[in-house]
Amino acid sequence: MKNLYTFLIIVGFVSLGFSQQKYEWKSKKAAGYTYTYVTNDPTQTRFYQLKNGLRVILSPNDQQPRINCFIAVKAGANQDPKNHTGLAHYLEHLLFKGTDKFGTSNWQQEKPILDSITVLYEMYAQAESLSERKEIYKEIDKLSGRAAKYAISNEYDKAMATIGGKGTNAFTSYEQTVYVDNIPSNALPNYLTIQVERFRNPIFRMFHTELETVYEEKNRALDNDSRKLEETMLRDIFKNHNYGQQTVLGSVEHLKNPSLTAIQQFYDTYYVPNNMAIILVGDLNPDDAIRQIAEYFGSWKPKNVAPLSFPKEEILTDTLKDEVWGPTPESIRIAFRLPGLSDFRSTITATLADELMSNNTTGLIDLNLIKQQQILSGSSAVRKMKDYSVFVMNGTPKDGQSLDQVKDLLLGQISLLKEGKFSENDMIAVTNNFRRRSLESQKDNSSRSYNLLESFIISDGKNWNQTLSIPDEMRKLTKADIMKFINETYTYPLVVYKKKGKDNNIQKIEKPNITPLAIDRNKQSDFIKSFNRMALPEMQPQWIDYSKDLQIDFVNNSKMYYVPNKKNELFSVVYRLDYGKLHDKKLAIAIEYLKLLSTKKYTSEEISKGMYQMASNYNFYVENRSLMMEVDGLQENMAKSLDYFHELMFECVPNESILHSLKQRILKRREEAKLNKTNIMKALTSYATYGPQNPNNYLLSNQEIIDLKAEDLTDLIHRLLRMPKEIIYYGPTPLIKIKEKLKLHIPRQTIISTPPIAKFHKIHNETNKLYFVDYEMIQAEIQWIKNTTTFDSTLTPIISLYNNYMGGNMASVVFQTIREAKALAYTTYANYQRPETQNEPYTLTAYIGTQADKLPEAIVSMNEILTTLPESQQSFENSVKSLKNLLESDRVLPENIPFNYFQARDLGLSLDQRPNTYNSLANLNFDELKKFHNTITQGHFTYCLLASEKKVSLDDLKKYGEIIKVSKEEIFGY
């Protein structure tokens, strides 16, 4: 998916002709507050500004009884002081630590200790000798331990979880820092209560453990080749702007010398109402919401914020080249600097040009390089920022191909744009697909929130009318406009070569000596006690009744599940087969091959263009046990879309030449998969869960791939729609009418049965084992695995509560202990995973990603939790409240009901299980939770460790079980 701000911009389309709608600013007064809005805005968004300058953006959407909440600050890496890069980011972390009223049990006792720590950090940054720095840090660590006696960890996260909040997080980029929550719609007063306190007087407590978490995040970034590629690109293409001269995470040197004084100055400068916005999208009444926001935030005092400016970037007069090294596969990135989002016309022109270049279907890269198998993979995107944007092309070479050859092929597609080797119909098709994507996303709170956020950052929301008018303006662009823009702007590129090998320039932030902080999970501040007593208006949960919410009929001789789409004119037809990768090793390859094939009637390119011009898609989802084939788009084009799809499925013609090229690409991808740590960890955990033969490596051998025949694959494809299948229709047409229409298009089932499925059984170890894969990186990743008992629906309530308490969010005991108290990881979690089918066992998993030198401590810490569940009655009660409020506001969207039903059916269930969980909560207690924990943790664990053998001592890990080194060939099966 492209990172575009086009998800909502064409919601106002009512036809594919030129829209005559006008998007004009108007103002109106309601409930005592004046707001502005844009005429014909389908999102009905209101823009307010309080007297203190705070922007409030409210956008109602009643799809679910929840509200997506952003509190945005116009301050990010761009605003970081030159001598304290990364500051905006670690301030973001500290805004979760509380104030003088919460996060502390005794502020008067805590304050003088924190003041002393602030002074010590200034001394630490100025100390010149290593010995002096060590002595100062010892004192910081000592005082931090004293201060922690008064600190209450994660009170903010616990409070948000208690009211049914989820997705609690924050992010920092170059131009913004944004605090994110998603709350039940009945909890808005509660949310505002804690937010106004949160930003009133934040206290930077537990700083040295949080800073160590930032170090972990930085070290993860240093291990991430994609991030290195991105930062190198920005550094080379922006010689003056902070986009290239500073990074969001900051330099290693600056992170080693933090200043609490500088953080406070940054906060005082930029966290002021006239530099911030509250953006709420969801089930809300704008009149009520603005009244409450003004009541809570109206007294906040504004300050002048000096505008930020940078010297203009010089025009490139030659091609720039750079390189990045790392263990992942080779690739190339080509970048052109463009005008930024502030230049509206350039932005829409660049967006349209990018879609012509790559849209996953009919772009020049898609048709000329991917479908023709000229390269292994390729794509384009516009990296959009306020002052400048960057057009980016990425490519990876196929076997025997050089990076320069990939570069030349990608630049060749730019030349085609410059020469006008595209049609007006291609441009119209892009716009049609904009319309379709907008219809899909107008109900999505998250997409709308990000669009409104971008509008605030660019123009305080004043460009929202332009955002809505983009489809109209895009339709006015001509082929000559595109060619002129490309020829004038896409001149000299930056080329960054990602090469495979050791990065000799990689840095690392060493682990400081930190004494774990004592955490009392039962402590509560008076503020949070009062917060927890705030009433939540009653909200009635809504459950699914499959007999009422899912209509079942037959089309020809296949069962059809029908759900009406009452929101828009989009349809989806899904064919679901109980036939997947474990039934036939050739299936996934056959599906990939199909996308490259022609029929006797149409070429592959004609099918892709025909579907794209109608704003229709076809997609395949190949799972272990099932295959789903989906055709979707505008209802008016359903018949023709299905005709195209069925033509491809039944009439595709075998082509040995295409298959030969595909085989080479698959074999190259297989080798590259063994260089990617995410893929390695996935393969390793499957190996540990099932044994040497497992679902992840149930694949054709390389030789079997080489021996494949084109006709074998097309014969398999031709049979698919004749196999036993279920049909799912979601769309605006009534059942009685759609049934008759589908009868004309849905092929009858003529094949009676499918091949048997390959069966794999989760293993139960008689001893502890540690599987190890050697991989060159700074970090270490370790996962615990334990298979337990077979699925039992009566356990669902206790499992749901256990996962919430144990590792479900930032208020969980795993997160608090390992990250907050001990600073041993950036990412850590634990959960009890439900199986996919009723005859499979549950799996208990836990995970830590940490610096290699912290691994011994991290393992001890997780094992302590797995051995003895940390006990906190307060945390338990919070988890019960959290789960109750989450369930009350949880809604299964109509389009997801059939798939929810299939999940239940696979588990042998015929009813929605949420009511049972909801009704059981009041009867559960901590003793039952503890008993459950002790039951599932008894026995032996399997450890999966991915790390560099140079950085971990395997001998020291033998105490945890038998060490078994496994090769990548063993776990991948090739």
Automatic annotation (TrEMBL):
Cofactors: Zn(2+)
Entry keyword set: Hydrolase, Metal-binding, Metalloprotease, Protease, Zinc
Peptidase M16 N-terminal domain segment(s): 57-102, 149-247
Stretches assigned to the Peptidase M16 C-terminal domain: 260-427, 757-870
Domain of life of the source: Bacteria
One function term, GO molecular function aspect: metalloendopeptidase activity
Family: Belongs to the peptidase M16 family.
Cross-referenced PANTHER family: NARDILYSIN (PTHR43690), PROTEIN YHJJ (PTHR43690:SF17)
InterPro entries: Metalloenz_LuxS/M16, Pept_M16_N, Pept_M16_Zn_BS, Peptidase_M16, Peptidase_M16_C
This protein's name: Peptidase M16
GO annotation, biological process: proteolysis
